[in-house]
Amino acid sequence: MFAKDALSYAAIPLPDRFEHTDDQMRARAQAFHDHMRRRHTVRDFSARPVPREVIETCIRTAGTAPSGANHQPWHFAAIASPALKQQIRDEAEEEERRFYAGGAGDEWIKALEPIGTTADKPHLTIAPWLIVVFAQRWGEFDDGTRYKNYYVPESVNIATGFLLAALHDAGLVTLTHTPNPMKFLTPALNRPASEKPTMIIAVGHPAENATVPEVAKMKKPLEQISSFFD
Length: 230
What we know:
37% of the residues lie in helices and 15% in strands. It is of the alpha+beta class. Strands 1-2-6-5 form a 4-stranded antiparallel sheet. A hairpin with a 5-residue loop joins β3 (138-140) and β4 (146-148).
C-alpha cells in the first residue's frame, strides 16, 4: 500500500552485488539455459499434492520482478480448492466450446492442430494448483484514492515469466491457459474491478504417461530470434 506522504526519492547502496569472471558468467549462462530448455508445457498432470509453501515461495519470486514506477501491478490467486477448480473448469470449458465452434476462426484453429488442444480442459481440476494472474489497472493510496499504474501489461508479463521459471526450478510443470473472455474469474475469486485476469497457470507434477507435442520441441535458432550490433 502506497502512502501519499511517502513518495520521495531516497538512494541506498546496491544491496546485492555479484562479481563473476567472464568464464564464470559464460558457465552460469549456459547452465541456466540448459536448465530452462528442459521446461515443458504439460497437459497431463498427476494428482500428487504440492505443498502450499512451494507455491508461496514461487509467487514471492514473481513479486521481485521489475515494474513500472515499482507499483507492482499484479495479483496471483492460488487455488487448491477442488470445488473452485471445478467451477473454473466449467466456466473455462464453456468459453472454449464457443472458441472451437467457430469463435476463433479457421486460421487460428488450424494453427493449434499441431498442439493437439481441444475444448476439454481436465488439467484445470487434476492439477493440484491453479494460479490465476491478475493485472492491476490502478491502485489505491492508503486513504483510498486511486493512483495510475504504468506499463501494466509489460510488468505483469515479466512477473509471470519469473513465476514460470521459479516453478520449473522447483521441479514442477505448468500449463498456461487463456480462455477468452476471462471476466468470470474476477467475481469467482473475489477480485476488485481494478484487476483484469490475464492467465490461468496449472501447476503440479507430470503424470506418468505425460506427453508433449513433438512440435513443442522445435525452437527457433538464435539467428532468428536475435540481432547483435557489436
